[in-house]
Amino acid sequence: MPTENIDELTDRAIGAMNDQEWDEAIEAFDEAARLAPKDWRFPNEAGLCHLRLEQFDDAEQAFRRAFELAPKEQHSSVLSNQALALTLGGNDDEAIEVHRRVLKNEPGYFKSHAELGALMRKKGKGKEAMSHLDVAVEGVRGQGDDDPHKMHHLSLLLLNRARVHLFLLDDEDAGLEEAEALIDETRNLGRAWTLANELVDAEKWTAARAVLEMIVEEDPNADEPRELLETVEEHI
User: How far is residue 81 from each of residues 15, 89, 156, measured CA to CA in Å?
Assistant: First the structure.
């Protein structure tokens, strides 16, 4: 069988990714990397496929190789990928250090601010989490409206800001403002529903009622939120 060239391997890898055949894509990207050992894109793409397979250690090593080869303008992107692999692999402290490396070189890189906001929230550091989330929200809001992922990212950031205010900073008014923005700006009722359930689990009844009322107002036919609202009102 003739040896595939770079273009053929790339086409095979992309086709495998489209079919969610991640192992085959990794094989093709690794072979391409052997033929073009100075091209950072191949280990980077292989790392993304390893993430899909939840092979987080392999992904992190692939991103390390990509970083060694990548031009400076790609460093933040590759390091952000490496940090994601570390986070998903349960290595939060190492991920934090990698994100801080990103921000040292590119202070406005909002993807790292978003991830640091989530990591600081997880560690219970409300003020530090909020400082990163604020930068991330500003960055996402500044993206063009043609970005198909804009509302997805913004909804998660607003959810995390609401969580910080409600669970860490004990600022119910600010938290409910974030919940309202989550619904008004992104129409992501799924994330608002997640927040409402977290508030119920924490027995924060008045905040839970307020979020559920927002959901029901936005979608009067939402049966589960309406039923949960009735239950919550029994506790107030």
Answer: 22, 12, 18
Question: Which amino acid, 144?
Answer: G
CA 177 → CA 34, 39, 65, 171, distances in Å? Answer: 53, 47, 43, 10
Backbone angles phi, psi at 154, to 5 degrees: -65, -40
Give the chain's end-to-end CA distance (angstroms, integer): 73
Length of the chain: 236
Residue whose pair of structure tokens reads 């604020």 in the numeric block: 134
Instruction: List the structure tokens of 136.
Output: 């991330």
Tell me, what amino acid is at 29?
F
State the Cα–Cα distance between residues 131 and 39, nearest whole angstrom: 36
Band of the pLDDT at 148, cuts 50, 70, 90?
confident
8-state DSSP, 106: -
Q: What is the pLDDT of residues 153-167, one digit of tens each?
A: 999 999 999 999 999
CA atoms lying within 13 Å on the CB side of residue 170: 0
Contact 48, 20 (CB under 8 A): no
Phi and psi torsions of 107, nearest 5°: -60, -25
The two three-digit tokens of residue 148, written as one number: 């198909």
What is the pTM for the complete model shown?
A: 0.89
- Helices 205-218 and 223-233, interaxial angle, to 10°? 150
Whether the pLDDT of residue 2 is over 70: the answer is: no
As a whole number of angstroms, the distance between CA 193 and CA 209 comes to 11
- Report the 3 state secondary structure along 152-194: HHHHHHHHHHHHHHHHHCCCHHHHHHHHHHHHHHHCCHHHHHH
